[in-house]
Hints:
The structure holds two protein chains of two kinds.
Chain A: H1 24-42, E1 47-52, E2 56-61, E3 66-69, H2 72-83, H3 92-102
Antiparallel strand pairs in A: 1-2, 2-3
Chain B: E1 8-15, H1 21-28, E2 37-42, H2 49-55, E3 61-64, H3 69-90, E4 98-102, H4 110-118, E5 126-136, H5 140-146, H6 148-155, E6 159-163, H7 170-183, E7 188-191, H8 201-204, H9 213-228, H10 231-236, E8 244-251, H11 257-271, E9 275-282, E10 291-296, E11 299-300, E12 304-305, E13 316-323, H12 327-338, E14 347-348
Amino acid sequence: MCSLCGMLGGQVHWTDRKRPATEAHAQWRERQVRVRLVNTVLQHYGLTLAEWSGTSYVLSSRTGRTAIVDNLSELWGHAERLCGRRCDPLDEQLLVSLEHTSR
Amino acid sequence: MADYTVLTPVNILTGFLGSGKTTLLQRLLTSPQLADVVVLVNELGEIGLDHHLLQNVAESTLLLENGCVCCAIRGDLQQALRDLLSKRMRGDISNFRRVVIETSGLADPVPIAYTLLREPVICHHYRLSTILTTVDAVNGMAQLETFAEASKQAAVADRLILTKTDLVDADSVNTLAAHLRRLNPSALLLGSAELDADSGRLLIDDIYDAAGKPREIARWLAADDQGGRDPALEVLAHNHTHDIHSFSLTFEQPLDWSAFGIWSTMLLHRHGGDVLRIKALLNVAGVSTPVLVNGVQHLVHPPSHLDAWPNGDRRSRLVFIVRGLSRAQIERSLAAFTALVNPQPTVTA
Lengths: 103, 349
């Protein structure tokens, strides 16, 4: 546990295991890439994600509501609570939005 | 977290009521390779008959109480696994190297997997190995059509073992085998009559076992070649009663790991109950060797990394077993997410 912020050191999430052993700087870079990419999806729900201290993320709504999440698996439940909608990757409107973004 | 490969592997042995789980286990445990196995038995009813049957085979049999693992026993399973750790550390029991959990016939094996992968103490000492499901050749087809539990047990399996094949004609066995192969193409399917002295490998081989990994990958690829990409078989793969079916997707270009992680965590959050199985051999952009991803409903094992490509084919291959979700939906969705990084990933049938 971090004595300053009280954060517990959690398990390594499976999405953080891209390589057998990832160096710290490479892992940091991948977290930045992940945040940028997930924000492309979250903008559909009016939410943004920011990296926090290399161990967690802060999820924010446009109205200022926030949640701390440890990994991507935890993210979607918090996102649904903050935006009041279902975060469904099969949702037609989301897919149209993403397909438009990548054109 | 401890190195995943040094954790004590745990197999789940499941199968519908009367499908021959205990008989199979008795045979497997005669293998010298499995001399140091602890068996946890989960039994419905007051008298744990199977427990007594197993006592003669594996000395360290522990009977779980309170009936079905899926709804009420998780705490007991947690306690049983923790107790085993304590006893091993104190030297009260021999230094077991593997645990086999035999579920009740109506059990959902997924909560057991959840306990192994997510319980904070257990996940640092144990890891989930293969799931074995017995299917009774006499009643199996009717059970698969009638009982959702039976279909799910077959769909999440790594090994499907047909039992009582000597009690029905060859055509019935072949029909059932074909049905199972379409329902779960990535599982190894064999008849109990085919078991031999080396059948302990059914429990031992998995993608985290250094010796068994190549054999396991060969099975994954063979299953994919046999049925996963054949659209005709995919149509047949429907279990109409429970709307369970399987299909595979192949990507020509390397996949972006972040996009895949974002997509799959979102999919499993919203539809994990209907994604019974994901098995993937991925060519990840920026990683020179293949990454194996193995998921059971909401759970994803820690990815396993191979030292080299098993053959010249470097395409990413994903096998899905789903309930009520269409291949077209999933294919379009994954393509939309990966296109955020790589505008035109090629998906082939």
